Amino acid sequence: MNAVSQVFAMLAAAIHLVAWPLESYLYGHPRVRYLLTGSTADAPEVWLWRFNVGFYNLFLALGLVTGLVLLHTGHSGSGRAVILYVTAFMVAGGITLFSSGPTKLWRVALAQAVPAAVVLLTDLL
Questions:
Q1: Three-state SS across 19-75?
Q2: Mean pLDDT in residue range 101-111
Q3: Distance between CA 112 and CA 3 in Å, rounded?
Q4: Which residues, 6 or more positions from 1, have their beta carbon under 8 angstroms from its beta carbon?
Q5: Which of 41, 109, 112, 125 is deepest in the core (most CB within 10 A)?
Q6: Rounded to two decimals, what is the model's pTM?
C-alpha cells in the first residue's frame, strides 16, 4: 500500500475518532449539533441513536488503525484487506448519508467519504 493511501487512511481514522465523542458525548451542546446537523435545535429523542452512531465511528477508526498496524508488522496482505474494506464501508456510508439526508449534511458526508475514497483510488489504480 503506497504512502498516499496510508496518509489518507490515517486522516479518515482521525476524522472518525473526532466524530466519536462529538456524537456520543457532546451532542447536547448547540455548537456541536450545528456542526453535525446544520441546526442548533435540540432533539433529545435521538440521543441513543447518536450515542450508537458515535461508537460506529470509533469502530471504523479502530478498523483503520488495526489495518495500518497489520500493514507495518509483516501482515501486509491482511492490513491492506482490512483498510480497503473499512474505507469502502466509509465511502458507502458517506454516499448513503449524502443521498438520504437533507442537503445541509453534505459536509459531514464528504468528510466521511472523501478521505476514504482517496485511499481506495490511490491504492487500486
A1: HHHHHHCCCCCHHHHHHHHCCCCCCHHHHHHHHHHHHHHHHHHHHHHHHHHHHCCCC
A2: 81
A3: 20
A4: 71, 76, 79, 80, 83, 123
A5: 112
A6: 0.90
Look up the domain containing 19 and give its range.
3-124
At 54 the pLDDT is 94
Within a 10 A sphere around the Cβ of 22, how many other Cβ atoms? 17
Closest CA to 67 of 56, 82, 53: 82
Q: Cβ neighbours of residue 56 under 8 Å, at least 6 residues apart? A: none
2's grid cell? 503506497
Is 23 in contact with 46 (CB distance < 8 Å)?
Answer: no
- Report how many domains make up the chain: 1
Question: Residue 72: pLDDT above 70?
Answer: yes
Q: Which three cell numbers stand for residue 39?
A: 441546526
